[in-house]
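Bumping with the actual sequence this time:
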Amino acid sequence: MAEAQTPPESNLCEQCRENVFKYKCPGCLKRTCSLSCSKAHKEADLCNGKRDKTKFVKRSEYDANTMMSDYGFLQDLARDHALLLRDTQKMKHGSANRLANQNGTINQDGRSPEITLTRTQKNVISHAKKQRQVIIQYMSPGIKRHQQNKTIWMSSKSRLVWTLELAVPEITQLANKWVETGFHDVCRPSDLWSRILSSNKTWSEVATDKDAEDAPRKRIKDENIRIMLPSDDGNEYPFKSSIQPKLHQALQEDSGYRRPEELLWLIRVQNMPANKPTFYKIDPLQPLYTQLRYQTVLEFPTIYVYKEAPTTWDGYGVTVQEHCVVTSEADSSEEEQSDSNNEDTNAED
C-alpha cells in the first residue's frame, strides 16, 4: 500500500504547518487552511485582513488577483463619487427651495425634494408677497406648526385669512398660548382680545349619571367662544375662538390684561441667531396686515402679549425694536400726487 505523500512546503498552511492551505489573507497574503487558522493569524500578526488598495505593486508581482482587486477599487470610487454627486444635488435643491420660500417663489420646476407646496400654499405665498408685502416660509409637512396652518388667500375680498397664534408668557401656571383660525387680516388684534375677554362663555356642569341625583359632576365645554370682529372695511365677521377655558378665566380675572392698548404686543423677528432673540412691536389698534408688512412669517404669526417688556428669552437678552411700517412706492406716489393736487386747489382758491 502506497504511503500518503507529504505536501510540498510551499503548499502548507503558514499558521499550523500541517494542512494544505486553502485561503490567502487579503491583507498580507498569508496562507491558511481553515477559519481557526485565519483567526489565529490575525491575532498573532495584528492583521485586519484588508488589503491596502493604494500600496505600490511591482510590475513583476502584478497578477490576475491584483488586477481584480484594482478593478474592485475603481468600482468603489465610482460608487462613492455617484453618491457624493447625488447628495450635492440634494443640498443645492434644498438651498434653492429655502431661498425660494424666503422670496415668496418656488423652483422653476415647481417642486422641491424637501418641501412640496400645494396649490393653495403657492397661492398664499404669491398673493402675500405681491399684495400684502409679507414673506411666508413653510416648514416640513411633519412639523406640528405646518399641520396647524390653515391660512388661505380669500380672492373674493383680496385678503389673507390667517391662522394666528397668541401667547401670554407671563402666565406660567397653565398653558399660555392658543391657535386661532379664520382671522381676517383687515381686523385688529385689539378687537379680538377685548371681545374674547368680554365674553361670558363659561363651562357647564353635567352629571355623569343622569339617573342619580347625587352623582359626581364633571365640567364640560359648551362651545368655542363665538364673537363678531369689526374690520377697517366697515363689516363685521363671525369668529370662533379656540382659547382654553382655564386661560380665558385667568385672563378675565387679571385686570392687567383688560385694556389691549396698555399691553406690549410683540412678534419675533425670523432668521435671527438663537442667542440673539429679537422682537418688534406691533400696534394692536391697527389692522393686522399693516403690522406684517415687509416681515417674514414662519407658517403663521405668533403674537406675544406682555404687561411688562421681557428682558430674557431662553436665557439670552432680548432686543425689542420699534416696528415702523414702510410705505410702498405706490402708496408714496399716490400721497405725493394727492399733496400736489391739494396745493393746486389751494392756489386756485
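The C-alpha cells above came from a reply further down the thread. The chain has a mean pLDDT of 80.
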